[in-house]
Amino acid sequence: MDKKTSIMIVDDEEIIRESFLHWFEKLGHRVEAASSGLEALEKLEKSPLEVLFVDIKMPGMDGIELLGKVKEEYPETIVVIITAYGSIETAVKAMKMGATDYLLKPFKPEQLSLVLEKIAHQRKLISEYEYVKGRLDEITRFDNIIGQSPPMQKVFDLIPEVAQSDSSVLLVGETGTGKELVAKAIHAKSDRSHLPFIAINCGAIPDTLLESELFGHQKGAFTGATHPRKGFIEVVSGGTLFLDEIGEISPKMQIDLLRVLEEKKITRIGDRQPMDVDFRLISATRRDLEKEVTERLFREDFFYRINVITIHIPPLRRRKGDIPLLVHHFLQKYSHETIKRVDRVSRDTMELLKSYDWPGNVRELENAIERAVVLSKSRTLGKGDFAFLRTAPSHVTKPRSLRDMEKSYVQQILEDCDWNVTKASKILAINRVTLHKMIKRLNLKRP
């Protein structure tokens, strides 16, 4: 075993503790001792250790109880049980609970050496596993998009192909599925990758302001225009413009953007001189624009101009095999950000997360993990840490269309917030103006 391994001996017999201390210090390891399970936990809280030698029979908290707590709070800590011949059945139980090995009293120093060799071998295997796991994490990531399910592999396969053309792309998917990440990945794989990528949420900007944001304006063009200003289409020159929630823009803005896409020219507000522009457009929507074209709610000519290539981003409930990967990623992220040692999810809790429908998709999962990590008092997240997740009543018929699902979800959020629009807009991660538009468009009524 490597030098300077941190070891703790937990035994109520002083002679046993002294024997271990003498032997391990002689071998060059860093050794501590505790006379009870409670003392051991207090020392572990101050400074986690790599290996624990724990006596099964101790007054108060026995070795089995201590093992359970150590494996829950410090799962990477190796535990070796010390037992007498009459307690072999208990030692077997301890092995099932996660103990690495056991020592039978009385034992000789040579037996300690043998146990240490086995521990060294196990640590080597764990190290190799972590390396392979790290490589697997790299394989299951595509430009910060995490997934290995068949629906996501289809998206991953499309990204490099789509990136090689300059055609307009429409990303279709529910809120929180990661449409902007896909747009960034397309930009990163394209010949425009060294030029700007600008993302604009059309649903978050009033239509009058959106025109100025996109096309820019001259000094004096309107009240408050004290200086000339470039629009985002001009700023993104040569790069990629990502328009999220493009289904929210007005018919007039659709006409203006259609002209820009066809002529490759823009004119600032208050100016008469058009200027040439070069950019690639990637749009995104959670709405069924094809249906809205049929219902004359969205311009057909503009729809076909932005929809040269379509990529459907699957909702999380259609790629549940990716949930463990995402959970692990968000656990690492928020454990690091909050400086809390929360790095595991219990098996039954993972099953709970996999069975939940995630109406807010990956964004909702991330928020759930962040909240659980911040409030958790344990290193392992349990079902109780996710008690806030809303479960849909079993008698409710699942809506069929995307519009019905959207209507049902927004209605539920509004009711949960007692129709407090400000509160509901924060949960939905949109602004109040957009939510008011959605309430009107979906014909939602307060009970």
- Global geometry: elongated
State the distance separating the first and last CA atoms. 69 Å
Largest sheet: 5 strands, parallel
Report strand %.
5-15%
Task: Give me the side-by-side strand order of the main sheet.
Answer: 2-1-3-4-5
Helix-strand category: alpha/beta
Radius of gyration: 30 Å
Count the strands?
Answer: 18
- CATH fold group of the largest domain: Rossmann fold
- What's the CATH class label of the largest domain? Alpha Beta
Q: Report the total helices.
A: 18
Low-confidence stretches: 392-397
Helix content: 40-55%
What's the architecture of the largest domain in CATH terms?
3-Layer(aba) Sandwich
Mean pLDDT level: 85
In total, the number of domains comes to: 4
CATH superfamily assignment of the largest domain?
Answer: P-loop containing nucleotide triphosphate hydrolases
How would you portray this structure in words?
The protein is an alpha/beta fold and 447 residues long. The chain has four domains: 6-137, Rossmann fold, CATH 3.40.50; 146-312, P-loop containing nucleotide triphosphate hydrolases (Rossmann fold, 3-Layer(aba) Sandwich); 318-389, Helicase, Ruva Protein, domain 3 (Orthogonal Bundle); 392-447, Homeodomain-like (Arc Repressor Mutant, subunit A), CATH 1.10.10. The chain contains 18 helices and 18 strands. It has helices at 14-26, 37-46, 63-73, 88-96, 109-139, 150-163, 179-189, 207-215, 232-235, 251-263, 289-294, 300-306, 323-338, 347-355, 361-375, 402-416, 421-427, 432-441, and strands spanning 6-10, 30-34, 51-55, 78-83, 101-104, 141-142, 145-146, 169-172, 197-201, 216-217, 229-230, 240-244, 265-266, 275-276, 280-285, 309-312, 344-345, 380-381. The strands form six sheets. Strands 2-1-3-4-5 form a five-stranded parallel sheet, with helices on both faces. A five-stranded parallel sheet has the order 9-12-15-8-16, covered by helices on one side. The protein has a two-stranded antiparallel ribbon with strand order 6-7. Helix 1 (14-26) links the parallel strand 1 and strand 2 (30-34). Helix 2 packs parallel to helix 3, helix 13 (323-338) packs across helix 15 and helix 17 (421-427) packs across helix 18 (432-441). The longest helix is centred in the N-terminal third of the chain and has 31 residues, at 109-139. The radius of gyration is 30 Å and the shape is elongated.
